[in-house]
Recover the amino acids of this structure.
């Protein structure tokens, strides 16, 4: 864009004064392009410089007209809010006409040999334009020039009144909150206040006309596209009422496009308010080396093409315990006091960096780098908080159970508890005993097949021994039960009696099996006797079961 | 402090693993919690009530006895029962709260509340 003749290093600075500079620099040839096709005025100038002086020059001064200076958004240059709607109020059916007031010449501290200005418009319809030096008008552009030998700081008012139906949206304020979590996620949320800064709507708004006629409300804004970073997930678009469902999300290779359609179309002077948020994976934006971390994120992101932001507030929430915070911004911003933000599982609050800036455009979408130190151990504080909370709960239960609020001692409850525990043990022992008998059955069956007397005898011996221990235990428990004065002791006594009968039967079946093997009894007889024995056993077992149930 | 010298930051736990970790940790935590709650309530009226209900629903007695046996582990009613239980209860509650705590953290992370 800039080409130097003799300049080696170009330093850009804005100057408002009207004093002439005696550097000896001369603009040889200037081609200025004013792009008025959107609601912003973008001026691009191609300047060929020559150094006619004696000394070496290593800086160049750019100048701006005093009236336009407050509207300068970006040196490139982009001016916001310079296109004034004229007429300022239009009805729904009318077209929107705007006026641009500028300078025919390049406002420069140096004399210009020759220059041309080309103005690109938004449409073919031009109401009026100033005619200095016989300009040529083509389809959508006007060409002024070439002007020869223009002195420095020369101004000549240019006024173009033309039709511009492009969306005149302005973001009056945006609050961008970026929350960084070291568990792997960055949450971004933007709260946006949007206004239509074109010609105000005069008269009523007819929904019927708007939908039926294609050129009704042609300068109104129905929808726009927001481009989010490529890895954005869980995108939400809502306002105070709730989720706004008139939106579309399209995931592309290098970006995520959200087509946003507000609840109502925006006409001149109308405004809307919404919140859009999404999650980003932290590995794309967070870097670290040991304890040092660096977050590289955009200070402001794309909201719509040719965006204008009147007021931006950025809040960067870093994890708890981040220290030595240092910010590198691509352009000057004003930082407010650091705040503290309290959210889930926080004890001493998360540091928040707050920065504000006015008058931003699309060219301000650049990265800001935030350096900070963070001790990784501090991440453990979060699960330990939850563990502590649970432990306190359990501890309360432990204490509560040990509290005794009864005014008098309740002996019945005590006895009941003791009896219950004893019964518990009786139950286990009896079951163990029944298991013994089953085991004995298995041994007998094996004996029938293998005819191994040794095994049978050893099995019988173990049965005897264990049975004796178990019976003794149960009797001991029975005495204890009686000591407590419980009537369950009798039931236990009954079980003991039945059990001894059961044992007899088991021994008898064992003997029968022996006799069968020895050949003293025939197979049929054995089967019959076995059946009767098992029948009796079943009966006894069921009776024992019933008694146990009653315990 | 140079950005170029730094590597990309990755989370200590891979986010793809959050669901599995949550389920496993919470399951173990809930098991220990249940085990913990058996102890103080053992042999109280609530315990009897639960027993009656279980037996009346004809839960197989052996199975029921088995479970109770494994849980009560020869609970002896002696005068020193309170102190012995206290250590056991504290230990179980510590383990239970550890697992439940981490389980709840990963549950929060899985759901999207990146704490």
């Amino acid at each position: 864009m800039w080409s130097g003749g003799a300049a080696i290093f170009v330093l850009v600075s804005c100057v408002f004064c009207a004093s002439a500079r005696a550097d000896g620099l001369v603009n040889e040839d200037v081609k200025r392009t004013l792009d008025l096709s959107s609601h912003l005025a973008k001026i691009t100038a191609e300047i060929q410089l020559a150094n006619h002086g004696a000394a070496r020059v290593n800086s160049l001064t750019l100048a701006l007209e005093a009236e336009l200076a407050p509207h300068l958004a970006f040196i490139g240059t982009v001016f916001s809010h310079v296109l004034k709607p004229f007429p300022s109020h239009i009805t729904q059916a009318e077209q929107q006409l705007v006026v641009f007031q500028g300078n025919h010449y390049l406002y420069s501290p140096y004399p210009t040999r020759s220059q041309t200005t080309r103005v690109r418009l938004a449409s073919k319809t031009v109401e009026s334009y100033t005619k200095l030096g016989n300009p040529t008008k083509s389809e959508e552009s006007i060409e002024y020039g070439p002007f020869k030998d223009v002195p420095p700081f020369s101004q000549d008012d240019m006024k173009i009144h033309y039709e511009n139906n492009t969306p005149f949206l302005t973001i009056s304020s945006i609050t961008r909150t970026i929350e960084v979590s070291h568990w792997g996620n960055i949450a971004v949320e933007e709260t946006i206040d949007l206004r239509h800064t074109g010609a105000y709507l005069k008269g009523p708004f007819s929904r019927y006309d708007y939908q039926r006629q294609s050129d009704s409300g042609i300068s109104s804004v129905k929808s726009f596209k927001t481009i989010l970073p490529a890895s954005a997930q869980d995108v939400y678009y809502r306002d105070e009422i709730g989720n706004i469902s008139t939106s579309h999300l399209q995931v592309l290779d290098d970006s995520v496009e959200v087509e946003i359609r507000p609840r109502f179309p925006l006409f001149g002077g109308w405004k809307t308010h919404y919140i859009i948020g999404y999650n980003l994976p932290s590995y794309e934006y967070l870097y670290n080396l040991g304890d040092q971390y660096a977050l590289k994120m955009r200070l402001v992101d794309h909201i719509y093409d040719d965006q204008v932001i009147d007021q931006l507030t950025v809040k960067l929430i870093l994890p708890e315990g981040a220290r030595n915070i240092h910010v590198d911004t691509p352009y000057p911003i004003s930082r407010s006091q650091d705040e503290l933000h309290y959210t889930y599982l926080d004890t001493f609050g998360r540091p928040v960096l707050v920065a504000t800036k006015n008058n931003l455009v699309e060219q301000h979408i650049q990265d800001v780098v935030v350096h900070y130190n963070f001790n990784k151990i501090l991440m453990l504080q979060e699960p330990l908080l939850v563990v502590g909370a649970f432990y306190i709960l359990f501890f309360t239960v432990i204490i509560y159970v040990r509290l005794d609020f009864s005014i008098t001692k309740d002996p019945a409850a005590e006895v009941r508890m003791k009896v219950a525990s004893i019964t518990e043990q009786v139950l286990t022992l009896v079951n163990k005993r029944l298991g013994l008998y089953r085991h004995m059955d298995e041994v007998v069956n094996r004996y029938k097949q293998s005819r191994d007397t040794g095994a049978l005898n050893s099995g019988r011996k173990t049965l005897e021994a264990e049975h004796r221990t178990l019976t003794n235990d149960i009797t001991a428990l029975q005495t204890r039960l009686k000591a407590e004065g419980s009537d369950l002791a009798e039931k236990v006594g009954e079980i003991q009696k039945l059990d001894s009968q059961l044992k007899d039967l088991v021994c008898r079946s064992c003997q029968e099996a022996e006799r069968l093997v020895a050949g003293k009894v025939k197979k049929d007889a054995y089967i019959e006797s076995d059946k009767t024995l098992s029948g009796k056993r079943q009966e006894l077992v069921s009776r024992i079961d019933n008694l146990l149930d009653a315990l | 402090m140079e950005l170029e010298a730094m590597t990309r930051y990755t989370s200590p736990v891979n986010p793809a693993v959050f669901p599995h970790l949550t389920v496993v940790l919470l399951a173990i935590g809930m098991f220990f919690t249940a085990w913990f709650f058996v102890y103080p309530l053992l042999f109280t009226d609530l315990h009897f009530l639960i027993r009656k209900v279980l037996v009346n629903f004809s839960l197989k007695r052996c199975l029921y006895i088995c479970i109770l046996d494994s849980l009560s582990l020869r609970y002896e009613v002696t005068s020193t029962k309170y102190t012995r239980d206290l250590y056991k209860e504290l230990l179980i509650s510590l383990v239970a709260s550890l697992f439940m705590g981490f389980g709840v953290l990963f549950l929060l992370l899985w759901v999207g509340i990146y704490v």
About this structure: The longest strand of chain A covers residues 169-181. The first helix of chain A runs from residue 207 to 212. The two ends of chain A are 99 Å apart (CA to CA). Chain A touches chain B through 59 residues (CB under 8 Å).
